[in-house]
Design brief:
CATH architecture of the largest domain: Alpha-Beta Barrel
Number of strands: 18
Number of helices: 11
Order of helices and strands: EHEHHEHEHEHEHEHEHEEEEEEEEEHHE
Structural class: alpha/beta
Strand content: 15-25%
CATH topology of the largest domain: TIM Barrel
Helix content: 25-40%
Radius of gyration: 23 Å
Shape: elongated
Amino acid sequence: MPRPLVARIDHAALRHNLALARSLAPQSKLMAVIKADAYGHGLLRVARALAAADAFAVLTLDDAVALRDAGHRQPILLLQGFYEAVELGEIVDHQLAIVVHEVGQLNALLETRPRRPIDVHLKLNTGMNRLGLPAADYADAVSRLRVWSGLGELTLMTHFATADEAAGVDWQMRCFDAITAGLDAPRSLANSAALVRHPQTRCEWVRPGIMLYGVAPNVETAPADLDLRPAMTLSSRIISVQTLAAGERLGYGGTFVAEQPTRVGVVACGYGDGYPRHAGTGTPILVEGVRTRTLGRLSMDSLYADITDLPQAGVGTPVTLWGEGLPAQEVATSAGTVAYQLLCGITRRVPVVEVNGVA
């Protein structure tokens, strides 16, 4: 009999979230960010579900080629561009767009003479200090690109560091607007948080990511408040029941000590499946739709649910780790991490079932 753990990917939820993102910026083109195996949901299955997107954004050349091989004809942007100039031949062959974020990268690009124009998203560092050209180099980079024979469409781009926090985006927008004043080109600014919270960032392109998967880009906001629907539900079942007497310990290290008689449901899911090992006692979990808590330190293949107040629960009772009825961001917050890590961390041994879509 197969292990009961499964990740269910809901195509209807993905399409719903895409439509919601589009409704926030109806005049913008929408670039769906599906990097990191579509945030753990599966690159090709998510691309099928989000086929109505105007473009896709991925990290690696391999992912972009896989999308082309699967028949996707939308623009595809490589979010870190190319790493070696030798990649440009394949980028041209597959008609991919690139982010240029560093002067050495720009110089390497301008030394080439591609047989087909390349669309370039020129990234400005407006204060996140991760990727992007310095403000002092940006206008010159635009000028150099515009006289380069290999340029297709030029897009001006930045990324926000605190769009989901109190600091907002105004401090970065002031920098972007000052540096790009007078540069006539499309702009790509809004990530999920900016798209939801900062209308001034809804320019020619928007780049929703985490919201497409049903996670609110701000941890203080419940997905339901934005009408987001979880695209992934990770579920399992109880495979054993233990009854602890007061004073007995549970699991590796005995970190949980029962203060009273406690019924424990052993659930088929552990850190070998991608559940965060650092999730301690009190992390929310649903047992047959009823909210309870995890107990103790989980193992590679199992974790523990408190079913003391759920007398009907026993071997075979269904459990939801996150997803429908239990937002991933709530589990992540309790575990001291972010929903991105939960979704991206699902391991290969977890079977995937697709619903409301083509398997």
